[in-house]
Structures are given as C-alpha cells and as structure tokens.
Design goal:
69 residues, mainly alpha
C-alpha cells in the first residue's frame, strides 16, 4: 500500500530486528528524559515524545518522519 515490506523476525533475538529495536531504544531514552523523577507519567508524555520524534530531522534520511510519509 505505502511501499511497506512486511518482514518477520525471530522472537527473543533483537539483533534480527535492529531498526525496530533502535527506534524502541530512542523512544525509551526520550521518555526517560521527559518523565525525569516521575515514571508514572510516561503515558501522559508519550504524545509529546512522538511529536518531537516525528518532527525531528533524521540524519539517515535528511528529512522528518512526517515528511518521509
């Protein structure tokens, strides 16, 4: 539909799905900064973190994820 290729990776083997694992690490790093000292608020901060992520120019593509779509 959008040129997305579905792939499968083996469970419990994060090296097989590096791109998704890197995104997860970035998301966790950003969330930990936002909820500094109050981890119970992570779900309240998630929309702000996603907005920041989707609005940031990524080094590998040179554009924001929102523009890449």
């Amino acid at each position: 539909l959008f040129g997305i290729k579905k792939t499968r990776s083996s469970p419990y083997h994060p090296q097989g799905n590096g791109q998704a694992e890197r995104f997860n690490r970035t998301l966790l790093d950003m969330l930990s900064i936002m909820v500094d000292g109050n981890p119970g608020q992570w779900d309240d901060m998630l929309p702000f973190v996603m907005l920041a992520y989707n609005s940031s120019v990524h080094e590998s593509t040179g554009v924001t994820p929102a523009i890449a779509m």
